[in-house]
Amino acid sequence: MVLRIVIDALIVIGAVFALAGTIGIIKMPDTFCRMQASTCIPTLGMLCVAIGAILYAAIIKQSAADAVKIGVIALMVILTNPIGAHTIAKGAYKSGVRPEKELKPDDYGRDLNE
Question: Which end of the chain has fewer surrounding CB within 10 Å, N or C?
Fold first, then answer.
């Protein structure tokens, strides 16, 4: 019973983080702030949901195969989300999109010899 409450709480916490990331995307002023809201917060939310799903699959459903699949999916999201966000941000910078506030230091400008 306690385990089921923990699993449900993790899934609800993950959904709240996903909602916060969505609201952050709408509210943030520029592309780079939106990138922060669209990667960090939903990744944490996905981790909470994945941990809850792994606990459910492994303990309640007693399916190790499902738990491993969920773990692999979570690992792939953890590995690919920051790389994708960095690539999109660098592409936006190269195409001329600049932050609203001046960056000090401007790391992308240094990398692009600007």
Answer: N
| Closest CA relative to residue 52, chosen from 36, 67, 34, 73 | 67
Q: If 0-12 CB within 10 Å is exposed, 13-18 middle and 19+ buried, where does residue 53 land? A: buried
Q: Are 63 and 57 in contact (CB under 8 A)?
A: yes
Question: Which SS3 state, helix, strand or coil, does residue 26 take?
Answer: helix
Tell me the pLDDT tens digit for each residue of 84-110. Answer: 888 888 898 889 888 777 656 666 566
Query: What are the C-alpha distances in Å from 66 to residues 18, 62, 101, 103?
Result: 23, 9, 46, 45
What is the DSSP code (8-state) at residue 113?
Answer: T
Give residue 52's identity as a one-letter amino acid code.
Answer: G
Q: On the CB side of 80, how many CA atoms lie within 13 Å of its CA?
A: 6
Answer whether 10's CB lies under 8 Å from 55's CB: yes
Summarize pLDDT for 41-59 with one digit per residue, the tens: 888 999 999 999 999 999 9
